[in-house]
Amino acid sequence: MENIYIESNCPFASCSLMYQPAIILVNPQINKNIGSASRTMLNFGLVDLRLVDPPKQWLCRDTIKLSAGSFNILEKAKVFHSIEDATSDINISFSTTSTIKNSVKNVYTPSTAIEHVKNKLLDHQHKVAFIFGQEKQGLSARDLSMSNMVIKIPTNPNFHSLNISHSIAILAYEWNKTLGNFIPKNEIGLNLKKSVLATGKQIYLLFKHIESILTENKFFPSRENEKEYLKQDMLNIISRTNLTDKEVKILYGIINSIKNSKN
Fold first, then answer.
1. Nearest CA to 17 among 118, 89, 84, 105?
2. Backbone phi, then psi, for 142, in 5-degree steps?
3. What is the pTM of this model?
4. φ, ψ of residue 80 in degrees (nearest 5)
């Protein structure tokens, strides 16, 4: 990529990343949308941008032009190969969708989602993420199963598709309205006696552990499509319950105890 001079005053110094939601774009196809997303993030003081499988040359002139002064966010953006990796440190994840098709997750509006997060965030230093799908197809059923909850923005049912940056703006506005732009550490009501919610990595590893044991016991149907649907349902069950790290350890103990008793 050719050198492009960017003059950007990006005021993140006073901003604590722990109390900000991460913005995760899964398989974005249009570079300009990545730039627009970073601009919107900076408008609302958000800086944690994560990209899952973006175009190879995503940091190009079009992206930078649309970022309009938020180059620092693009420069610091983290790129991942999978949604599992992108959410490995996330305690509470919301996937976004414009259509609800037999969702087995709790579905929230932006305002109710932030209110739901507020109490959990004030209990402990939980990391939140908002996950956005590909421009044309959105998030796959597999991607949706990786999140704890679903957000649906109320729109015209006959014309419901929103640009990614517009969706980010709505969620970021609700976040700032409810929690304030930056949350000072001395105002966070930490209670170390309360359990911390498990991260995405802990949840996924628990799922893989259960999956491996069930595979050994020939639990899954032989047909590949039926097997994958069942695994997806299992992941939905585990991810939507907001397990704490303590509960994950208890489940490991229970599962291993059952496994060992059969040996």
1. 89
2. -65, -45
3. 0.71
4. -125, 160
CA pseudo-torsion sign 227, 232, 236, 238:
positive
Nearby residues of 240 by Cβ (< 8 Å), 6 or more positions away: 104, 105, 106, 148, 149
pLDDT digits (tens, 9 = 90+) for 167-218: 999 999 999 888 764 444 444 443 434 568 888 888 889 988 988 888 888 8
Q: Is 109 exposed, middle or buried (0-12, 13-18, 19+ CB in 10 A)?
A: middle
Domains and CATH numbers, the chain: 17-187 (3.40.1280.10), 200-262 (1.10.8)
The three-class DSSP label of residue 49 is: strand
**Can you state the angle between helices 200-216 and 245-262, rounded to 10 degrees?**
10
CB 128 within 8 A of CB 91: yes
